Structure formats: structure tokens, C-alpha cells
Amino acid sequence: MQKDLILILDFGSQYSHMIARRIRDIGVYTILLQYRDYENSISNLLSKKSKGIILSGGPFSVNENNPPLISKDIFNLNIPIFGICYGMQLISFLFQGKIEKSKYQEYGKTSFTINNSNNKLFYKIPKKSIVWMSHFDEIKILPKNYKTIGYTPSCSIAAFKHINKEIYAVQFHPEVKNTEYGIYMLKNFVFHICKCEKSWKLKNFLKNAIKNIKKRINNKKKVLLGFSGGIDSFVTAYIIHNAIGKNYLICVFVDTGLLLSKEKERIFALCNKMNLSIKIIDAKNRFLSRLSRVIDPEIKRKIIGKEFFYIFQEEAEKIKDVEFLAQGTIYSDIIESSSKKSQLSCSIKSHHNVGGLPDSKFRNLKIIEPLKELFKDEVRKLGEEIGIPKEILRKHPFPGPGLGIRIIGRINEKKINILKKAENILMEELKIHDIYDSVSQAFIILLPIKSVGVMGDKRTYEYAAVLRIINTEDFMTATFSHLSYDFLEKISNRITSEVDGINRIVYDITSKPPATIEWE
Ligand code: XMP
What we know:
The chain is α/β, with parallel strands linked by helices and 520 residues long. Helices cover 33% and strands 26% of the residues. The strands form three sheets. A nine-stranded mixed β-sheet has the order 2-1-3-4-9-8-7-5-6, sandwiched between helices. Strands 12-11-10-13-14 form a five-stranded parallel β-sheet, with helices on both faces. Strands 15, 16, 17 and 18 form a four-stranded mixed β-sheet that branches. It binds xanthosine-5'-monophosphate.
């Protein structure tokens, strides 16, 4: 059955993916597309029967040279449209409204008043509520045939609608939790205005994913799965395993020498428990020799990505009848790499499973990515549903390039061992203090800087290390975890006294943005 779809055209806002998630949470399938692909989206809309289009926010001004624009054709499709922030200014710009720099740039919470409640977007929403604003331009004169439906103290046109078409727009961000009734506005748009039916259910997703893979691999060919040991690869393995059976799925786990202590053994045991066949490739020397002189983070990532590629290629050649390569790619990987391709947002770093791999295809292998439509929290929910052990579900993410991007500058075995010991202590303490599950990711970064210390009346000159502990919903934005000084002190004391090679610990108190979660 064709599921109802809401298409989101992304103009580069940091919140665009949130719109997609919120709408999926209320049971409707969404696709996020770069605005430059709008021509494709029109054919998409027609072929996939999109019931509505959302124009996202973005960091641009319609008054700058060459602002991101879309063709007006989209407004002739007779499909409801909802513009958010930049999306609102864009609608206004396209239909000759007037947009100017606001006198008071608004960032954060403000009070919003509905001045025309006779519209479906604000159905059952109180006249006054709190909304989340983040803009520097505002609409001064409405386009013809539009009317204002809401305002804030410093923005007289904070929401508008077309007088007789289903075109709505708001200056604030309904997708952000700080907008008190934001989810109700999205629900009103999706159900009331677009008349979507709830058809996005993870249970259906699982059944369909297994069915589709069964259909695609009906010739007893084998699948090689690039297996990292995280939740994405376990859920991918589960789906393929259920579609084609144990004998046709080979999980390949690469020991890069840049793993945490006992990681290989842990993953091996878990695969056995789940009845998955796993092949572990010892490639430690290979990775370390390629990386020994490298300092630049992007070059490190590219080298690691390429080495993974060569290893999978070699393995595919060794095993008879391999026709498919599976990966645990999820939707945020796709969004990141597509925004890189379209240069809508600048390239931040090459995540090894997407950007780090060479463009050429894997031998003649066909790619299978059953999770590529899902967000991380959806994968986790799916994992829970299919009974994946808690220790995998709750495991903090560990990047493909591993400790290679947590040792800043040159990598060598001595530094790897120092970092592994420090990591062990951190994990032990997080678990002892019952903090592991309440933070999203915690790790140590080893700096290439040494500093002077004193231990037992002796001078030391050792490496400094950074403690990075963050909380996040989706890893696209994050804040540092506000942990007690006592806990931080305990970690610092233990690492500096138990790990030879580190005599100083600092705590990273930066959010993402402006920083990223990993340092490289
Ligand atoms: P950043 O540093 O980009 O990290 O804020 C966001 C999340 O992604 C993880 N990460 C990676 N995961 N391959 C992966 O599979 C990679 O190359 C990679 N780089 C970063 C990071 O640990 C965090 O959870």
C-alpha cells in the first residue's frame, strides 16, 4: 500500500531533520530533500503522492545575492504548503512581499498571539503561547492574497496564510520543543490540512524490510555485511538474517587496532548469542602503518575509509557467491552526505561509512541498506522491539575510525594503549556511578600536547587528555553533560594516577554547534 508522504524541502536549517522526525513520530512518513532537488521532488510528489510540502528554515536571507530559491511551479500542484522561517520569507519573496532585516533580531522564546483563529493550522491552539524564534529578517509587507494570522511583540507578521489556498507559513520553529504547541501545529498541518492517514509504523517497517530483502535476494547469493558492532549493524544483521538465513549472511568485523579494549571479544560473543556468523579480520598492522605519519584529520578519515573498502573487497573475492554488500547506513548519514554533495552546508567531516569511501563501486557488489530511511532513535526502538540485548541498545556510539580520530595528531601504539587504559577507567566510573545510561556519549581524547606536572615530589612531563561527555537527542546537535564536580574529580584523579602517560585532564564544555562531538 502506498503510504502518505510529507515532503520537506531543506534549505539548510539545523532543525530541518527535526521536522522530519516530529512528523514521523506522529505516524506519517516524511522525506527530506535538498531544495535544489525540487524538480525531482515535483516528479516525486506526483509519483509518490505527497500530501504536503514543508519549506524548511535556513541560514540565508532572500535579500542576499543569489538566495536559495525554488520554482513557483510547486505552488500550482494544489498540494498544501507550509513555510517555516526561511520557508516563510521565501513564499513571501516569490509572491512579491517585502522582507527586511528586523530591527530586533529574535533568538529564543517569545510570546506568540494568534489574531485570526479561523484557520486550520491553529485549530484548538490557545490564542497566546510560547514559540521559538531564530531569525534576522522579517516580513514587512505581505504578498497579495495573503493575510496575517499571528504576531509576536517584535514581529508583526509572525504567521500568515493564503486567503483561499492551503498555503501557511510561520516565522518561528514549530519543530523545536520550546514551541509550546509546535507539535499540534504540525499535526494540524499533516492531518487537518493535508489529510494524511497514519501509516508510518515501525512494526510495518520491519515486516516490509524483511520481505523486500527476501524478494531482492532470491537466488541463494550471499551478503557481506560491514559490521561495526553498534546498534545499526546489529539491527541490519537481524533484518537480513531473518530474510535469508544464517548461511547466506556473513558479518565482517575489521579489527583496525583502533578499537576499545575487549571490543572484538565482546562483539564476537554477542554475535554468537544472536546466532550470527561473524568473520573477524585482523588488520591492525595495516591500519597503523598507513596512519603512522598522518596528522590531518580528514586525511586520517580518508585513509581509514579506503582501507575498510579494500578489506571488504578482498573478503568479497575470497568468499564464493557473494553478490551483495550490506551496510548499516541510517537516514542521518544520508542527509549529511547529500547536503555535502549539494554544498548546502559545508563539509564538516567525512564519516567513514559514507564520505570516506571511494566513489567507485564495490567490485560488482550490489548495496543493501535496509535502515537508510530511519533515524537513530527509530533504529533503537526497532532494536528494542526485536529483542536486541540491552548492552547493544544502550551502547554509546563508537565512530568507525575509532581511536584514530581521538588521538589528535600522530598515532602510535603507545598512545593507543594510553588512551585505552584511560577509556576503561571512564567506562568503569560511569557504570559505578550509574551515569552511563543518562549520557549519550562519553570518551577521552588524547592531545599531542604535554604539560608539566608533579607526582610524589617528582616533575612529570606527560600528555594532556580531554574528557568529552555529551547529551543529545540525535547527535546532530549536543550539549556537554552537566555532571557533578565530585564525579569529574574522581575521573581525573584515577586517570592521572593510574595511567602512565597522562598527567592532566580537562573537561570539554562546548556544545555542538559550534564544536562537533568528536575532535577530529
Ligand atoms: P560529530 O563528531 O560529527 O559526531 O559531531 C556525531 C556522531 O557521529 C559519530 N561519528 C562517526 N560515526 N563513522 C561513524 O560511524 C564516523 O566516521 C564518525 N565520525 C563521528 C560520533 O562519535 C558521534 O556520535
